[in-house]
Amino acid sequence: MPSTAMLPDCSILLLAGGRGQRMGGQDKGLLPWQGRPLIAHLHETVRSLTDDLLISCNRNLAQYAAYADRLVEDDQAGFPGPLAGILAGLDAARHGYLLVLPCDVPRVDLALVQAMRSQAALTPDRPLMLREGEHWQPLLCVIPTARRATFETAWAAGERSPGRVLRQLQAVELQCPADDPRLANLNTPQLLEQAMNLHS
Questions:
Q1: pTM
Q2: Which of 7, 72, 101, 142 could form a disulfide with 117 if both were Cys (CB 3.0 to 4.6 A apart)?
Q3: Distances (CA, A) of 173 to 5, 149, 160
Q4: DSSP reduced 3-state for 100
Q5: Residues 13/101, Cβ–Cβ less than 8 Å
Q6: Other residues' Cβ atoms within 10 Å of the Cβ of residue 118
Q7: How many Å apart are CA 199 and CA 91, to the nearest integer?
Q8: How confident is the model at residue 8 (pLDDT cuts 50, 70, 90)?
C-alpha cells in the first residue's frame, strides 16, 4: 500500500445538498448527533487531509460555510440529486482527485478515508467506489477530475445515478465488511435516534 507521502492530493466534497425527504424536509447535514451537526463530524475527520474542502449545499449556506473552504451549489433547481452535487464538485475541484462523502455517515473514520486515497493511487485513471459486503456505496468514492467530461455527458443524456457513471468508468472497489458500522447511514429520524441512544 502506498505510504502517506505518496497519496494523491485530493479535493474533498461533502454532499449536503439534498431535499431531506427522509428527515421530513429538514437539512440533514445540520441535524445534531452527539451534540454537533452531522456535517461537523465529517469536517473533523477530513479537515487535515486537504486544502480544498468543498460542501455541496443548496440552503443554509451561512451555517455550512463554517465547515468548508468553499461551498458549491447545483446548477439545476429543485434538488436534482447527488450526481448534480458531484458534478458541481468536479467543476470546482482544485486537485486531480475528488474524494466524495455524504453528510449522513458521521462514523466514517480517518483510516477509511486514507484507505480510499491509498487504493485510488494504485489505479490513477479510474475512479474508486466503496463496496460494503455485496452492495456498492457510490457516494463514497474517489474520482479523477480528468473524468469530469464523462459525468457531464451522462448527465446531459439524462443519467442521474452516480453509481452507473462510476461503473461505466470501470471503478475499482475498496471492499468493506457487510454492515460496516462506519458506513451506517443516519438518513431517517429513526436511525438518527437509534444512533443517539447507542451513544447515550
A1: 0.89
A2: 7
A3: 22, 22, 21
A4: strand
A5: yes
A6: 18
A7: 38
A8: confident
Q: Which grid cell is 179?
A: 454492515
Residue 52 pLDDT: 98
**144 close to 103: Cβ distance less than 8 angstroms:** no
Cell of residue 61, nine digits = 449556506
CB 162 within 8 A of CB 82: yes
Phi then psi dihedrals of residue 55, to 5 deg? -125, 125
pLDDT tier at 193, thresholds 50, 70, 90: low
160: which residues sit within 8 A by CB, 6+ positions away?
80, 81, 83
pLDDT digits (tens, 9 = 90+) for 10-67: 999 999 976 544 444 678 899 998 899 999 999 999 999 999 999 999 899 999 999 9
Mean pLDDT of 146-167: 97
Please say whether the beta carbons of 29 and 38 come within 8 A. yes
CA-closest candidate to residue 14, choices 151, 131, 106: 106
Which domains are delineated in the chain? 4-198 (3.90.550.10)
Percent of the chain with pLDDT over 90: 76
Mean pLDDT rounded to a whole number for the chain = 88
Closest by CA position to 163, among listed 119, 113, 102? 102
Closest CA to 107 of 199, 174, 20: 199
Instruction: Report the distance separating Cα 200 and Cα 197, nearest Å.
Output: 5
3-state secondary structure 168-183: HCCCEEEEECCCCHHH
